[in-house]
Amino acid sequence: MRFSICAAIVFIFIHSPVFSQEYSFSDNDKYVLVIHGGAGTLLPGKMSAEKERAYRDKLTEALSAGYEKIKNGGQSLDAVTAAITVMEDSPLFNAGKGAVMTHEGKNELDASIMDGATQDAGAVAGITTVKNPILAARSVMEKSGHVMLSGPGAEHFAESQGLEIVAPEYFWTERRWENLQRVLEKDSAQVELDHDEKQTFSPPVVDNIDDKFGTVGAVARDKKGSLAAGTSTGGMNNKRFGRIGDSPIIGAGNYANNQVAISCTGWGEFYIRTVAAYNVASQMKLLGLSVEEASENVIEEIGNLGGTGGMIALDKDGNYATPFNTAGMYRGTVNEKGEIKVEIFK
């Protein structure tokens, strides 16, 4: 029996897909937090050593912040908000301070959070003055009778809850402004997915400029075994008409129950159409699939429809998966021992 179990483990490891990871350890080594900073055109050798180090350091900081919450007995929700707040405050990622710009040169932010234990959820969309959208989403979940608030109403509610309000100019960065101008100069009608090669709705336009940052997210498991998921984004570069993607939509870009927590990153329209996050949970429940099998199936479905991106998923037993169909995805994990692992490329 011992030989059979070992052989099975070796077989699973060898035959795991290249673009996905799943690990299962003893009770003392289970993973408690998984994060992502977006999926996209991330190629070894195309990114400077300095830039790569900056991303790795910030992802490590986010993991450490979330782990401290769990280590000290905090809820999975606390870990998710702590990790995402670190990334929202960094100009490296397309969320909060690093958000991309709309066609009009503004920053419109979306976020959502979900408690797997209760299946309570909160989300905000199209906000422009709340420093940390993930905290606004949590306030909606915990302090209102609603799931999603948008625009000025969401901002007013966040302010009434004592969240930090900033001038819209806080989110402006020179790099994002230059990105917008580059797109406008080429095609004023173009919408660019920040996560991947330039994307328009017919057909995608490929750009080799390695300046792709993305949506951030986190999934966590606390000492009680409760799960939570959170996602935050600035959306699409050059987006128009009040466009809202999958990130604030429960079941599309974010979902958690008592079995699995999922946060997505990619071309949001495809994640909405496939109900991507909930799709993973459903396949696990109805088909008995592992977190790796279910999440890979959903990313494959998105790819078959023409979409790009990835996701992170963490189950109740501490197993996780990080499938993506792009060249890379900013991602990291920390287990119950506090051991941190950060990756960017395939």
Question: Keywords, please?
Answer:
346 residues; alpha+beta; Glutamine Phosphoribosylpyrophosphate, subunit 1, domain 1; five-stranded antiparallel beta sheet; 9 helices; 13 strands; 34% helix; 22% strand; globular; disordered N terminus
Structural overview:
The chain is of the alpha+beta class. The chain has one domain (19-345): 4-Layer Sandwich (Glutamine Phosphoribosylpyrophosphate, subunit 1, domain 1), CATH 3.60.20. The chain is 34% helix and 22% strand. It contains 9 helices and 13 strands. The protein has helices at residues 2-14, 49-71, 76-88, 133-143, 151-160, 174-186, 268-273, 276-287, 291-305; strands spanning 22-23, 31-40, 109-115, 121-127, 148-150, 216-221, 227-233, 254-256, 260-266, 309-315, 320-321, 328-335, 340-345. An 8-stranded mixed β-sheet has the order 5-4-3-7-6-2-12-13. A 5-stranded antiparallel β-sheet has the order 1-11-10-9-8. Residues 1-18, 21-28 and 195-213 have low confidence and may be disordered.
Indicate the percent of residues in helices. 25-40%
| Spans of at least 5 consecutive residues with low confidence | 1-18, 21-28, 195-213
Largest sheet: 8 strands, mixed
In CATH, the homologous superfamily goes by the name (Glycosyl)asparaginase
CATH topology (fold) name: Glutamine Phosphoribosylpyrophosphate, subunit 1, domain 1
- Helix vs. strand class: alpha+beta
What is the domain tally? Answer: 1
Note the run of SSEs as H and E. HEEHHEEHEHHEEEEHHHEEEE
